[in-house]
Amino acid sequence: MQPIPIPAVPETPLAAASMVLLREAPTGLEVLLLRRNAKASNMPGLYVFPGGKLDAADQTLDAAARLDQPAATLQASLNEPDLDAPTAAGLYMAALRETLEECGLLLAEPAGAQASLDAPRARALLRAGQPFAEVLAALQLRLQTRQIAPWSRWITPRSPTVSTRRFDTRFFIAQAPAGQTARHDDEETTDSVWVGPRAALDQYQAGSIDLAPPQIMGLAHLSRHASVRSVLDEARRQHPPCILPEHFDRDGTRVLCYPGDENHSVAKRALPGPTRLLHVRGQFVPEDGFEALFT
Fold first, then answer.
1. Which CATH superfamily is domain 15-237 in?
2. How far is CA 157 from CA 44, 164, 219, 234, in A?
3. Paired strand residues for 280
4. Which runs of E-coded beta strand occur in the chain?
5. 224-282 pLDDT, tens digit each
């Protein structure tokens, strides 16, 4: 097995945040997926969880006024010793901002006598160019960081397969707020679907939707749970694992390995399911077949 050459100086990953939104449906647990615009420069046409890169403004907000937990508490929850408190709070802020921006859901609570928990208005102000902190101040709202839990951290491989940029993404998980409707923005995203985790992977196997490895492995993980409470309880019991996929070439097939795989530099397993995916005919598939995602 010959290693795939990588650049001498790989691109430094950009800090980013993503939100895995869940709801209970008559058929069981469902997750929200958004389809990225087919003209996007990064991951065009793929179905993803809402998210985006960390902005400078996310790190300079008045955490005491706009977040329901101190920045130091949020820093501790991410379990990253080298991460400072403003950046940790900014990652929570980015996840919640992108959730509003991309699918119109606002996880917030009143912070004043004239508070207005009006998600469509908040989204409209944000899309008109008003900074998120100013939107929250105008509506007298405080973000509900207690309602979300860190779930995992994914770092794009040094030689990406499906994206043109590298990201260091913290994934959070939350129950979608009641009484609000999720909808794509028709700019960055062009479709939005609530779907069972197993059903989404079945659609991926059939070729009707396209997914990237973090979504494949995340959906396989979610398929092991029967309820939102079960997912959140697990997330709050653990430290979010860090996954930096490593790869090698086997007879012309690219193989992505995850912690715990015999070819990965980290021996401790980080995820349930297979420890490697093969890139075959444009799809990422487990070495031992599709059902290996669920065993």
1. Nucleoside Triphosphate Pyrophosphohydrolase (3.90.79.10)
2. 18, 11, 20, 26
3. 283
4. 14-25, 28-36, 47-48, 51-53, 108-110, 141-143, 148-155, 167-175, 189-195, 242-243, 246-250, 253-257, 276-280, 283-286
5. 999 999 999 999 999 999 999 999 999 889 999 999 999 999 999 999 999 999 999 99
